[in-house]
Specification:
Blueprint: E1 4-9, H1 13-24, E2 29-35, H2 38-48, E3 52-56, H3 64-73, E4 79-84, H4 89-98, E5 102-105, H5 110-121, E6 125-127, E7 130-132, H6 134-148, H7 164-174, H8 179-186, H9 190-204, H10 209-218
Parallel strand pairs: 1-2, 1-3, 3-4, 4-5
Antiparallel strand pairs: 6-7
Length: 235
Amino acid sequence: MKKITLLIVDDHPLFRQGVVDALTLEADMKVVGQTPNGSEALELIRSLQPAVAVLDVNLPGINGQQITHQVTQEKLPTRVLLVTGYDDIEQALHAALAGAAAYCSKNIEPQNLIQIIREVAQGKFMFGARVLNQHELDVWVNEQVGGMRRSYSEPGSPFHPLSEREMEVLECVVKGMSNKEIAGLLGISHQTVKNHVTSILRKFSVEDRTQAVVYALKHGWVQLKNSVNKTGNEM
C-alpha cells in the first residue's frame, strides 16, 4: 500500500502532537515531518515534497496563507490543507484563492480530518463541508466572490494575498509604528508606505489601521506575540 506522506505544521505543541499521533495510527498514512514554524515548513515542503501538508493559518515566520500561495507559485506537488481556530467563509475563500486544496476548523473531529486528507490526496477539494472536483471548486469560488465582492486595490483580483512588502508593512502597523518609522525601517519613501497601507485597507475592506490590525490578528495573518515595540519589549 502506498502511504499518504504528511507534513504537520502548527506552533501549538499539544495540538500538533495530537494530530501527528492520530494520523500515525492510520495504516495508509505516514508523517514525514513536523514543525512549528512557517519558514521551516516551506523548506520542508520543498525538500520532502509530502503528498499533503496540514498547515495552521496562524504561524510564526510566514503564515499558512503565504506558504500556500508560494507552494502554488512554485508548482510544488504537495497539496495543502489549511486549518484555523477562526473559521469563516471569507477565510475559506482566501485559502481557496491562495491555492489550498481544503480548509477546516481546528475543532474538527479526528476521523473527519482523516477523511479530508484522503480526499485531498486523491485530488479532490474540500470547502464548505463539501467534496469538490476542480470545476465544482471554481463554481464555488465564483459564487462566493460574486456575493462578497468589494473594492480591492488590484482590479480583477479580489481577496488577492498580500504581497511580501505589504506583509512587512502590516507587521509594522501591528507593532504600532507610524508611517515615518516604517519608511525608515524598510528603507522606502513615506508615500510608498502610505500606498501599501491603503492597499492593505482595501484588501481587508476596512476603514483604518486599527481595524486592519484587528482583522490581521483575528484571521491569523500576523501574531501579536511576535510583535515587538520600539523599546524591544513584547507588546
